[in-house]
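Memo to structure team: turn this sequence into structure tokens by end of day. - J.P.
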Amino acid sequence: MNTYKLVAALTVIAGFCAPALAADGYRPQNDAQRNYKACTSDFMSQGVKLIRPFCGSLPSRPVFPDYEQARTSRLSLAELDSYAVKLHQFSQQVDHYQTCVNQRVMADGSLSNETLNYAACADQWAVDQKGKSAEEWTLSCFGQIDGEQKVFTDEEYHQRQQHCVNPAR
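Reply from structure team:
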């Protein structure tokens, strides 16, 4: 069961991150892009500050109850759905931010390689924020399922898990 939850959480994270990169026509142009996990937190922070005049700021990540909070507080399906909406809205904001970074900043051939590296780190930071949010929402969802004091049929349980992996948009 725990292995299934981990696989499901990783699937959600990959599902949120991969399409945005492919949709933006992502092509590595500099060091940070070639080695996408090359950015330290300092570089990411500097990159976010550097591109703020071009792309604005990404809002804070939505806060979701952790697995234990969702399980013990018996989070309702309506509450869970409201969290899914917040996740979707944040995901769209990240996509917009990444599009700006890739099309306005990274596409500018007049910028220095160092500036492009910082911009790539800001893009990585946005991807990380999106992934963390998806992971936290998935854990909340699984906590809600496990917190219900009823026995599910296999079909009901599978449908609920699918909701956790593919939230309604």
